[in-house]
Amino acid sequence: MQSGTMKTMAEENVENDYIMKTNKEKKLGGIKTLPFILANEMCDRFATSGFHSNMITYLTDELNLPLVKASNTLANFSGTASLTPLLGALVADSFAGRFWTITIASVIYELGLIIITISAVFPAFRPPPCPTQENCTEASGSQLWILYFSLLLTSLGSGGIRPCVVTFAADQLNYKTKVSTKSVINIQKWNFFNWYYFCMIFASVAALTVVVYVQDHVGWGWGLGIPTLAMAVSVVAFVIGSPLYKKLKPGGSPLVRLAQVIVAAFHKRNALLPHDPKLLYENPQLDADISVHGKLLHTNQLRWFDRAAIVLATENIEPKEENEEVGSAHLNLWRLSTVHRVEELKSMVRLLPIWAAAILLVASSSHTHSFIIQQARSMDRHISHSFEIEPASLQIFGFLTTLLALPLYERLFVPFALRFTGNPSGITCLQRMGVGFAINILSTLVASFVEIKRKSVAFHHNLLDNPKAVIPISVFWLVPQGCLHGLGEVFMHVGHLEFLYDQSPESMRSTAAALYWVAIAIGSYVGTVIVTLVHKYSGNSTRNWLPDRNLNRGRLEYYYWLSGGIQVVNLIYYVACARYYTSKPLEEVSDPREEQEVKLSKVKLPSSQMSDA
To answer: Which of 10, 294, 297, 377 could form a disulfide with 588 if both were Cys (CB 3.0 to 4.6 A apart)?
Structure first.
């Protein structure tokens, strides 16, 4: 009796400790953390946009690099900056956690900005000026290595920031909660991902109106110094909010868990699958840290991986000691996996075809920004008699379109579409992405017609052979394609980010967010290959589609048509993948203190889920 009483008291103490810990955790996070996180992201985006938006001008005018070489350099480092988020996500999910990953990565990014700012201040780090852009002396090897090293540091810094900030902020809000507080309802009425993207675009607009003007009219020392100071502010803002953040415990390396499932399934490749999936191995205690908001349910897709959860007669899953969790201490996860872990792998495999559709979209548009700046430099940029818009600032029209379209999407488009679809979010995020693909195709076609018009005016004024001449055609001819691109981002990029976050396993969301950037990385590298091949095989210096110095003698419209054709093929591929996609099944637990209240549901696609939350 005494032993039983002591055991009961011990269980009560454990339960009380758990309740106290749960109550303490509930006080962390929430909307009060968003000002610190979004301030960090806005300062980071301000610094990044101010640093990268006009770099093509810095490389061609200050370092005297040819157009294609400069454009390829930026595309390659943009690809690297988009590839490193996979490393940052693995570090965050495996052992460091998202908070420390963001903090350390921000410091690394700041070091890269400091180095390139110093190189812009001292003339010894640049070649002699070449105002005529003829017979120019390119930057030396040592000068380029300073540039490459600073770009590498900023790429590594981006790798830790990009996959973690959005997921870290979403962790603070906890969309799975059933507590219908007014604050939670308000933040979910306007999808958090729209807020996130809105803040990013707002910061980018500020950078394009301030930093670019300083770079072109004051100097590159100040032009790069301002983003450096902004990045320092972002680090301080983020760290100040540390006591308020909800910091989820890393669930271990997600890639290791995926590898364990594959190895276990291969080891049992000759085993017969049971007809009843309930006979597959499940262990809620083992999966507790990676299924906080509910475990994944078994699906009949990709059943080959189910072999990893088959319990063979030779495998002992019973506890060795009375107080040991069922099989957790001595289980060999390289030979036996739980259904939840198998479904984690299935979820990631299912979303890969949709994810891959973004690669060719990025590839076809990765160099467009550089080419638009070169076009704008040859056009009439006067807004008034005495004021000219800077070439790199033309991006602002695309960003302003995005800023305007995001609230209009929520307030006008969603209610309008609801009447026809019955979907609370208007359309699913897969449909939203498809619309974005179509709009980007239209943007590319418009860009080709504008280039034809620009060269036609240059021909009529005998300016084709003068690359430094100002062609009497308004630079605002370039605005429609930028606005269409901005509208496409509202549909494609926001929908893509939502899709990856919601359809990935909860313990792999940083990794899934990293996939968003990995698609951009691969697309940037593929875009570099396309541009290099086009430049090499499209003709001699007078007929080349993408000439080194004189764009007036190029065939840029042909390149745009090629890009548009690639995007059409990509859209057909995407529609086929989206048609057969099925969302992940999840067993949701409404609250840790109400473990008996379990609701089996099929997870909706992100837009509808967050509108219904």
So the answer is: 294
Cβ partners under 8 Å of residue 594, min gap 6: none
- Per residue in 325-365, pLDDT (tens digit) is 444 556 788 888 898 889 889 988 998 999 999 999 988 88
Q: Is the pTM of this model over 0.85?
A: no
Q: Are the beta carbons of 396 and 203 closer than 8 angstroms?
A: no
> In this structure, are residues 302 and 309 in contact, taking their beta carbons and an 8 Å threshold?
no
pLDDT tens digits along 499-520: 887 788 877 777 777 788 788 8
| All residues at 6 or more sequence positions from 435 whose CB lies less than 8 Å from its CB, including other chains | 427, 491, 492
Average pLDDT, stretch 66-95? 79
* CA count, 13 A, side-chain hemisphere, 236: 6
Type of residue found at 393: S
Amino acid at 149: F
Q: What are phi and psi of 588, to 5 degrees?
A: -95, 135
The helix/strand/coil state of 51 is helix
Pick from 365, 291, 369, 361: nearest CA to 55: 369
Task: Report the C-alpha gap between 468 and 219 in whole angstroms.
Answer: 21
Burial of 14 (0-12, 13-18, 19+ CB in 10 A): exposed
Q: Identify residue 142 by its one-letter amino acid code.
A: S
CA–CA separation, 378 and 463 (whole Å): 10
Place of tokens 């004051």: 218
pLDDT tier for residue 323 given thresholds of 50, 70 and 90:
very low
* Percentage of the residues of the chain whose pLDDT score is greater than 70: 83
Average pLDDT for the chain: 79
601: β partners: 586
Residue 131's contacts (CB-CB under 8 Å, 6 or more residues apart) are none
Residues in Cβ contact with 392 at an 8 Å cutoff, skipping those fewer than 6 apart: 53, 54, 56, 57, 208, 212, 215, 216, 373
Question: Does the pLDDT at position 15 exceed 70?
Answer: no
- What digits encode the pLDDT tens for the residues 377-411? 889 888 888 888 888 778 888 888 988 888 888 88
For 242, other C-beta atoms within 10 Å of its C-beta total 12
Question: What are 137's two structure tokens?
Answer: 């002396």
CA–CA separation, 259 vs 238, rounded Å? 34
**Contact between 226 and 43 (Cβ < 8 Å):** no
Burial of 65 (0-12, 13-18, 19+ CB in 10 A): buried
Tell me how crowded residue 172 is: count the other CB atoms within 10 A of its CB.
22
CA 193, CA 403: separation in Å to the nearest integer?
A: 13
With beta carbons less than 8 A apart as the criterion, state whether 524 and 364 touch.
no
Phi, psi of 367 (to 5 degrees): -105, 0
